[in-house]
Specification:
mainly alpha, 4 domains, two-stranded antiparallel sheet, 2 strands, elongated, ATP-binding, nucleotide-binding, ATP binding
Length: 492
């Protein structure tokens, strides 16, 4: 919440000022909040929530703020796109034989990253990279500490047999030990900070996109008789915004993925030589399979969203119909709607197969560790096993990253297509010159126009064309049957 105090007018026209509590999370530094959350179970007693802990919400909330940020970033690019689109449509009408180039659509990714993300998103990425760095320095520090312990053990056995000038001196690596003790703590601090900032970014992302679509809906000519697909609109507000907000944080982990893979692999190659290339070879062999299934996965995600549009549309029509039909007719109406959904979703298990396969691809990395273990069985170097585990661990999540990238790309394209629909022209109201007239109309024209339609995807257009061809064939067969019956009647 932004506002701290709010005045409310009661039924007796009395102004009552409500004192709002300050947001403790924003009042104190992040490190203090982190320590408070960690030590709170030890020093605080459990207290139930009472009425004193609940206060009215202010009218100036964070949703309005994020919507204004998203609108300020989207409107300039949208205003530049509209004249270019009108010019493109005019060229298609004037010169139908030519193939003019369609203007590029405004980027919604820029609005998501630069307007809704701001500098906090960059801070989250830097914190994420620092947490990865502290995590990867721990095996090297462990190596130096173990080396010092091993030298000290050898010194205790060998020094009695060596001359004074060849005595083994064991020094404890205090710097490496201090870094080894601080690295887990710093890794947790920076990882928690990045997770917190990314979580806030996801919340603002969903709020800003929902606010943009709400403002766009008010500017469209949408009525009960419009051709706007209600199922598509409901999916945009629920499924697409949820997927963008949920899966967009996974994209930021792709930035740290090269560091998590190649830095440990460099340490492994430095100590083990060419034999470590076998692990990377197995990883490279598994990548084409993941990429192949990922392309199928993107198509399956698009079909799922189309099916979700139809399901929401049927659900909305069912709920609206239940208000007007009689009670006796309700079961029939609901059964018909349910059958419609069943017909369109009978092939869903086949379309969900790529999603189920992607979740099992990560288990192939266990083969990598097994091959390396067989190859280096006689080398007791613990830190290299840790490096090897760090190197292969990101590949277990690679399928999730690919799925997140596909879902965010498809959903943001659907939201962008809705945001670039033509809007109603807002004409300011001008008072009549004479006070005797309530309404004055000059040089007006009235005409019927088609309401806006949400653009269809390529697969949806192909499906509609195939259905139209099928209906045309059925109509031709029906016409041929009628002509045949008429000829038989004439013969009789």
């Amino acid at each position: 919440m932004i506002a701290q105090n709010q005045s409310v007018q009661t039924d007796n026209n009395e102004m009552i000022q409500i004192k709002r509590k300050e947001n403790l999370e924003e009042q104190h530094p992040f490190i203090l909040n982190l320590f408070y959350c960690f030590f709170m179970p030890f020093v605080c007693r459990i207290k139930p929530v009472t009425n004193d802990d609940i206060y009215p919400a202010a009218h100036d909330d964070r949703c309005d703020y994020t919507t204004e940020l998203a609108d300020a970033g989207w409107i300039p690019s949208y205003q530049v796109y509209i004249p270019k689109l009108a010019e493109y449509e005019q060229k298609k009408l004037d010169f139908p034989d030519t193939n003019p180039k369609e203007p590029p659509k405004p980027s919604l990714f820029k609005v998501m990253l630069f307007d809704l993300g701001s500098f906090k998103l960059l801070l989250a990425i830097i914190s994420l990279l620092l947490s990865v760095g502290f995590q990867q320095c721990m095996p090297s520090m462990m190596k130096e500490v173990l080396k010092a312990v091993m030298i000290k053990g050898m010194a205790a056995q060998m020094n009695p047999m060596l001359p004074p000038d060849q005595q083994i001196v064991a020094k404890f690596p205090y710097v490496h030990a201090i870094i080894l003790m601080l690295a887990p703590f710093m890794n947790a601090i920076f990882d928690t900070l990045s997770q917190r900032l990314i979580y806030h970014f996801s919340s603002q992302l969903r709020s800003g996109l929902a606010g943009l679509m709400y403002k766009k809906t008010l500017l469209l000519n949408i009525t009960a008789q419009s051709n706007i697909d209600t199922g598509r609109l409901l999916s945009l507000l629920s499924s697409d915004t949820n997927q963008i907000a949920t899966m967009s944080p996974q994209l930021f982990y792709l930035i740290s993925l090269p560091f998590e893979i190649f830095i440990p692999f460099g340490f492994v190659c430095y100590d083990w030589g060419a034999s470590s290339l076998l692990a990377f070879a197995v990883i490279i062999v598994s990548i084409p399979l993941q990429l192949f299934i990922s392309f199928i996965l993107v198509g399956a995600l698009g079909k799922y969203l189309v099916h979700n549009d139809e399901r929401n549309k049927v659900t909305n029509e069912t709920l609206q119909g239940m208000r007007v039909v009689k009670l006796s007719a309700t079961p029939t109406f609901v059964n018909a709607a349910a059958m419609t959904v069943y017909i369109t979703s009978k092939n869903i298990p086949q379309e969900d197969f790529p999603v189920n396969v992607m979740s099992s691809i990560g288990y192939i990395n266990k083969l990598i560790i097994l091959i390396e273990f067989i190859d280096i069985l006689y080398y007791s170097i613990i830190h290299q096993f840790i490096f090897l585990t760090m190197m292969t661990m990101p590949f277990n999540w690679l399928s999730l990253y690919i799925q997140a990238a596909g879902m965010v790309t498809i959903s943001q394209a659907r939201v962008r297509d809705f945001l670039i629909l033509p809007e109603l022209k807002i004409i300011p109201n001008v008072a009549p010159d004479s006070e005797q007239f309530d309404v004055e109309i000059r040089n007006a024209q009235f005409r019927w126009g088609d309401p806006p339609e949400i653009p269809l995807s390529k697969d949806e257009k192909i499906e509609i064309e195939n259905e139209a061809k099928l209906r045309l064939k059925e109509a031709q067969k029906e016409e041929a049957r009628k002509l045949k019956e008429e000829k038989e009647r004439e013969k009789e």
